[in-house]
Amino acid sequence: MDSEAAAASPQTTSPLFQLTPEILYHVRKFRPVSDKEVCDVIGLWDEKEGNPADDLFLLLRLGGNVNCKLHFAVDEEEDTIPPILYYAILRGNVCAVKLLCTFGAHLYPFSDLKAQKCEEGEEPVYIGSALYVASRQQSVPLVKLLVDIGADVNAINPDGNTALHSGCWADDVEVKTLLDAGADVKAVNGGGNTALHVAVQAAGVAVVQSLLDAHGDVEVVNKKGETVLQVAASIYGGVEPEILRVLLEAGARVQARDPNGLSVLHVSSLLGNVEVIRTLVEAGAELDAATFEEGILPLHAASVAGQLEIVKIFLEGGAGVNATDSVGETALFKASACGEAGVVQALLEAKADVDTAKNDGMTPLYAASHCGHTEVVCLLLAAKANVNVPNEEGFTPLVTASRNGSVQVVEALLTARPDDKETALCVACERGHLEVVKALLEADTDAKAADEYGESALTVASEEGHVEVVRALLAAGATDTETALFAASADGHADVVKALTEAKANVNHAADSESETALEGVTALMAASEGGHIEVARTLLDAEADVNLLDGKGMSALFFASQEGHVHIVRMLLQAKAEVNPTDRKHPAALLIASQRGHLAVVRVLLDAGADVSFVSEEAGGDSLFIAAQGGHTEIVKVLLDANAEVNAEHEGGVGVSALYVACQNGHAEVLRVLLHAKAKMSVKNFQGFSPLHIAAQMGHLEVVKVLLHAQVDVNCVEDLGNTALHLAAFFQQTEIVQALLEANADVRVENTSGQTALQIATLCGHSEIVAIIEGDEWEDDDEVAEETEV
């Protein structure tokens, strides 16, 4: 805009400028009316001086856009911004709405708009037609205005609602206005609800009556399978009894069910709508109507919900007090499980069977005991409930209460002198429920009790580390201290071990062959050493545990600790004078097992303590160096060599198998390098005449083969059947090794005792790639011979 035009244009945003009809009349000569001006007149209607209706009228006469969109809806997407008529309706501005409609505002602009944005988890709010919006605002004047203008009273909102649906949240006047204008009382929204479905939730009896007078259908079922009566009955806090009365008078079926078989009685029982229940029962609602699959009755629902007054109404009405659902639960069972003492008392007074068990054998007493409902347990016991009835797993009320630590329930059950106190004691000990244990012991339960597997209560408590329970059992005379000591030691419970040693448990007791908790001859110290439980081991040693006892296989505590790599325990045992070397070859050595498992730190400690590097047990078949090389433990091999281990010692019955041989056999190239550096012989052979090169070639260990070849091993040495390493590599299809051997000048012409060369073997086996490699090498050899002949 040039400066001259700018000077001529009125500045409507200036606070000193007052927009008047006269100026509006002349402003048309300079520019069109903006949408903002139209919006501002309505937005500032109450704040404007003069008559804002005149301003709006003139703006619209001057060409203002009657369908302009709210300019201040800056956060909305373009296609969700409503027109100004929407805002005028929300403000309840009848005058503005009338003017806008007079100038041709669209009455249905909102129907095509998207759902308004909403918070996560909320249902979207659809805008709908002008009449729908007005009815939602509960503005009777606006509704009448739009109806008089000719708005379609049955225009459908995107979610299926009509103005009548939303009008049901208002008063009877608005509803009658819509009905008089021809609103369809039977129209259903997206959820299948008619206006009646909405009215029973939102309005008073007058609105409901108006809809019924307009022939509203009380039996229409929505998409949830609910009739109007069912919707009314499901209102939290209860619907007006008068609404129920008019629905019933209009023919609503009191026996109606939803797709799951829930009746109005079920729903109202769960919600505690007492007056609704009275009305429904008086109207003949069926008291024993069960849901289709679960078989739940209204009495069951009321009992679960703890609705005592409703339960009494049902009982007075003749409901079956002992009726069961599909899993065999009675109302008494359900109330007992939920801890509803008042309901339980009422059911018992109505002669409910106190011992009726559900399908899995659980009685009401079991359910109450399991859930810790002491008051209910006392009521059931007073009604002579059988305290010894087990469920299908064999657990009684006392056992389940003991398992769950419900001490008050346990004390109540003990007054009935139950039969299974010992089992309950074991269960309580396992869970560590000290107060329950004390209650059972005070009731003269045998402290020496054992469970179904033969484990004593003391052993179970020790195994789980419940030291206070252990002390209580010991004080009550429990005697199975040795087995308990082993269990506590194996699981690392140092405080329990200390308590048992203070009770003079035999720390050197060894498990016999029939024990379920340990191998034959294993002591508590061995178990602690194997588990790495250093505090337990220290406690046992302080209690003078014999550090050199052996189990049935000749293994000591030192062996177990070394086997698992527990170096701190190894040191502790050695300080306690543990023998580092076995007395004969029948017993395994700690150094051997540590070398086998790769526990370098343990190996160092054992060597410092004088472990014999040359010791060979019958089971191991070799010394520590042999075992370490076999496992590929390079650093341990180095340490053992530094400790003067014999690098060329032969084992496996003296047939030539050495540490170097097994390293080659298992593909440990780094170990091989260390052994070669220590002058290990490459010429050793096994009982078949296999050299290290033979076995490495057969097994496909390319890196080992390369190390041996680099060390100048005899590439053409033969085993007992005359095969070279090349023969074996060709037979076992080790292509890369064949190539490496040929590059090391392996003789392809060597024949084995069967007269076969490596090439012939490869050919017979169909190894074409190896055949090609060997044949290529032969041609090279022939060329070299020809060149020498020519010279």
SSE map:
Elements: H1 3-8, H2 21-27, H3 35-43, H4 52-61, H5 84-90, H6 94-102, H7 130-136, H8 140-149, H9 163-167, H10 172-180, H11 195-202, H12 205-213, H13 228-233, H14 241-249, H15 264-271, H16 274-282, H17 298-305, H18 308-316, H19 331-338, H20 341-349, H21 364-371, H22 374-382, H23 397-404, H24 407-414, H25 421-431, H26 434-442, H27 457-464, H28 467-475, H29 481-490, H30 494-502, H31 524-531, H32 534-542, H33 557-564, H34 567-575, H35 590-597, H36 600-608, H37 624-631, H38 634-642, H39 659-665, H40 669-677, H41 692-699, H42 702-710, H43 725-731, H44 735-743, H45 758-765, H46 768-790
Helix pairs in contact: 3-4, 4-6, 6-8, 7-8, 8-10, 10-12, 11-12, 12-14, 15-16, 15-17, 16-18, 17-18, 17-19, 18-20, 19-20, 19-21, 20-22, 21-22, 21-23, 22-24, 23-24, 23-25, 24-26, 25-26, 25-27, 26-28, 27-28, 27-29, 28-30, 29-30, 29-31, 30-32, 31-32, 31-33, 33-34, 33-35, 35-36, 35-37, 36-38, 37-38, ...
Overview of the structural elements:
- It contains 46 helices and no strands.
- By secondary structure, it is mainly alpha-helical.
- Among the domains are: 105 residues, Ankyrin repeat-containing domain (Serine Threonine Protein Phosphatase 5, Tetratricopeptide repeat), CATH 1.25.40; 91 residues, Ankyrin repeat-containing domain (Serine Threonine Protein Phosphatase 5, Tetratricopeptide repeat, Alpha Horseshoe), CATH 1.25.40.
- Helix 29 packs antiparallel against helix 30 and helix 44 runs parallel beside helix 46.
- 49% of the residues are buried.
- The N terminus and C terminus are likely disordered.
